[in-house]
Amino acid sequence: MITAHIMPLTILLPLVGAYIILLFGSRHKILARNVALATAGVTFAMVCFITYLVSAHGTFVYHLGGWAPPLGIELMADNITAFLLVTFASVAFIVLLFASDVLPGEINPKVITRYYALYLVLLGSLLGIVLSNDFFNIYVFLEISSIAAAALVAVNGDKLAMEASVKYLIMSTLGSGTVLMGIAGLYMVTGYLNLDFIASNLSAAYAGYPLTVLMTLAMLVVGIAVKAALFPLHVWLPDAHGAAPTSSSAILSGLVVKVYIAVLLKLLYRVFPLDFIAALPLQASLLVMATLGIFVGSILAIRQKDIKKMLAYSTVAQIGYVFLGIGLFSEKAMIGAVLHVFNHAVMKSMLFLSAGLLIKYSGRREIADLAGLGRTYPLPMIAFSVGALSMVGIPSFSGFISKWYLGLGALEANQLLFLVVLLVSSLLNAFYYLPIVIAGFFKKGTVEVEKQVIPVGAQISLIFLIAATFFFGLFSNIPVSYIAPTIQGLFGMFGGV
């Protein structure tokens, strides 16, 4: 019974958990914390089971209420979808484990209960976006996730947080409106909202309304680029990350911006044929914006003195890697892009969480003031160092694997220029990450810091993230072998590009 309905239950469980927290949590804060952790943990277990079902039986489809599309709502999980589900559920659980011990000293205790509820609402909406196979539900969950994410930024209620949240909401609303117009255009020319039905009727729609189809594709891509913070549409990101609590910064950078890339992947491998897209200027536009994002994000990161702002601009560059992999339109590059969604989620969450601990215990956010903290707080600095080396692309770390496949994809597509882009960008990453690592362990601190005990939950979270970075760097064949068949089938179906 549960197996048959596991996909809708996976979306519903975090929402029910949020309702229970709001109902009883204000009077029992420990209960709120435990319900949030239990809900996120069980959700992760259910996602792992969905991944097993997909691996054992192929694509998993569920029709809500027994109503088949196009009238009914359809949920679908294939290999890529299941991989993204594991990414979102696992990182969300680890970050929540960290937050459960650190939040009381970081935000107003009166809003912690609401924070847990908002966090679960965000998790449920992210999973809903990934599983939905029709544009109506994708859009609904996109809006829920945007509102929940903005609230998590503003949860403390101070001036900077509110300003960053409003800026995020404005940009997110512009992106959502553009996406909605694109969805309306597709519905107008095909008569469907289900992705598979749109795909099957797209050729006829393009023959009758070529300009409308092109405009809808453009609006969808632009709207997604705004919400995913692709340069130059990234202006909301640095302030939102800088003003948010540590766990909110980690989840925003690690997961929220990635879910819109999941929507773009749905467009590419379920709706618009790759050979159709390759004939448009879209590929060149994606490659140019991705390259600019990689370089401008890195340069702006180098200029930052605030550690969280530096990490935020680094995210702009890392989003560029994912769009670069998508824009190259080759099997290896697409594998690299999908891998980097997971690898960056792990790396950047670890960087934000470790930086948050260093800020919390030193009382300073300036990069120069973090010197010497590796001696006082070795675990956070080791975690930061592992994340930094992985971001640079040092072999045996998971970040190297993403860049390796992106580089192979550039060669496969005969785009040697973008191989150079990857190499130069790795040097830029080293330029702003490695000095922090070196100073943290080998320089004397400018600020006297009294050593305090790091909560157990925070320590466990960092250890898990460190282990994941090494494990998927050394055993990358596990995720690659899982997602590669779907991507190979995608390119084989359309004869390659």
Any key phrases for this structure?
78% helix, single chain, two-stranded antiparallel sheet, mainly alpha, 497 residues, globular
The helix/strand class is mainly alpha
Query: Strands of the biggest beta sheet: in what spatial order?
Result: 1-2
Element string (H = helix, E = strand): HHEEHHHHHHHHHHHHHHHHHH
> C-alpha Rg, in Å?
22 Å
Sum up the overall morphology in one term: globular
Residue-averaged pLDDT, rounded? 82
Helix content: over 70%
- Note the total helix count: 20
Number of strands: 2
Uncertain parts: none
Taken as a percent bin, the fraction of beta residues is: under 5%
Q: What order do the helices and strands come in, and which of them pair?
A:
Elements: H1 6-24, H2 29-57, E1 60-63, E2 74-77, H3 79-102, H4 112-131, H5 135-154, H6 159-190, H7 195-208, H8 210-227, H9 237-243, H10 246-271, H11 274-278, H12 282-303, H13 307-327, H14 331-362, H15 373-376, H16 378-392, H17 398-412, H18 416-442, H19 456-474, H20 477-493
Antiparallel strand pairs: 1-2
Helix pairs in contact: 1-2, 1-4, 2-3, 2-4, 3-4, 3-10, 3-14, 3-19, 4-5, 5-6, 5-10, 6-7, 6-8, 6-9, 7-8, 7-10, 8-10, 9-10, 9-13, 10-13, 10-14, 12-13, 12-18, 13-14, 13-18, 14-16, 14-17, 14-19, 14-20, 16-18, 16-19, 17-18, 17-19
Task: Describe it.
This protein has about 500 residues and is mostly helical. The protein has a domain at about 275-495. It is built from 20 helices and two strands. It has helices spanning about 5-25, 30-55, 80-100, 110-130, 135-155, 160-190, 195-210, 210-225, 235-245, 245-270, 275-280, 280-305, 305-325, 330-360, 375, 380-390, 400-410, 415-440, 455-475, 475-495; strands at about 60-65, 75. Strands 1-2 form a two-stranded antiparallel sheet. Helix 13 runs antiparallel to helix 18 (about 415-440). The model has no long low-confidence stretch (mean pLDDT about 80).
